[in-house]
Design a protein that fits this description.
The structure is a single chain. With 95 residues, the chain is α+β, with helices and mostly antiparallel strands. The chain is built from 3 helices and 2 strands, in the order H-E-E-H-H. Strands 1-2 form a two-stranded antiparallel sheet. Helix 2 (60-75) runs antiparallel to helix 3 (79-86). It starts with 8 loop residues before the first helix and ends in a 9-residue tail after the last helix. The relative contact order is 0.17.
């Protein structure tokens, strides 16, 4: 994937989304030693990475309050807060 050289991890996750069908918020990329990579980090090839796919939680009791929290953050334009909520991961379609 030479076209991703020097690009942030976020770009790699977008590419992986097309392959695995999971959003970047459901993906965790780990270095060979288990260190998680942040979306704004860059990885210079060659790199040995592990992809972990996370399911959305199925806790019905919490989903409504989390959905309200996500909706409130988006309406206020709080981009960093929305990113943090979705990295739980939280299903954005629960609303």
């Amino acid at each position: 994937m030479a076209e991703l050289d020097g690009q942030p991890v976020r770009a790699l996750k977008r590419r992986l989304h097309k392959l695995c069908g999971r959003t970047r918020f459901q993906q965790r990329l780990l270095l060979a030693d288990g260190t998680p990579l942040q979306d704004d980090a860059t990885v210079e090839p060659p790199a040995d990475l592990q992809l972990v796919l996370l399911p959305f939680p199925c806790d019905e009791s919490n989903s409504r309050s989390q959905a309200d929290e996500l909706l409130h953050a988006t309406r206020r334009g709080k981009v960093q807060e929305v990113e943090a909520i979705l990295h739980r991961p939280q299903d954005p379609d629960v609303m």
